[in-house]
């Protein structure tokens, strides 16, 4: 998910911020979210376990930081509401995750690992918590043929040409700049962008991006703080 340079015809016309039609699978019109699981693919019990594991992993992160997250200050945790756990909680969550958390805390991969270990410790099969109505897919198809057509579909890129254009890949993919004839013109335009993660990136940074990797995430959070992907690429 980020920013991408595309070379398109100079007269290419497609509305900005509108996903390119070739990136949208039309066969999904013949499907709908599973009503039994609201499209999650998981039973209510599995979703509840996920909520509880999230709080558990957050407790481990808090133990390392020495501060109680607002969620745990408000959640009805009876005798531990608003309290920060000690190092033993951090040991527990690291053991469940199979690793210590990053500087940002435990992530979704840690939560997944912890959930799987809890299910296994309960002596339950790996498929426990899978929605039986949709077999965990979260989607109900009108027919097997419609599902197969969706699987067989391949996306198509916009036409190529001599022009320069920046696209976002946070959604299916859409242009977020006009088409320009030169990298310099595009860099000048993107440096004037005043919204989102691109705000504040210089002409020089954008020019390096356009003439260099041509792709970067929308933003990066690391030891240097939050930066646009274009800035963090260099």
* Helix and strand pattern: EEHHHHEHEEHHEEEH
Distance between the termini: 18 Å
Largest sheet: 4 strands, antiparallel
Give, in spatial order, the strands making up the sheet with the most strands. Answer: 5-4-1-6
Whole-number average pLDDT? 91
**SS-derived structural category:** alpha+beta
Q: How many distinct helices?
A: 8
Overview of the molecule:
The chain has 234 residues and is α+β, with helices and mostly antiparallel strands. The chain is built from eight helices and eight strands, in the order E-E-H-H-H-H-E-H-E-E-H-H-E-E-E-H. It has helices spanning 44-65, 70-74, 87-97, 108-121, 144-152, 183-191, 203-211, 229-232; strands at residues 2-8, 31-33, 139-141, 163-168, 174-175, 215-217, 219-222, 225-228. Strands 5-4-1-6 form a four-stranded antiparallel sheet. It has a two-stranded antiparallel sheet with strand order 2-3. The radius of gyration is 23 Å and the shape is flat. It starts with a strand and ends with a helix.
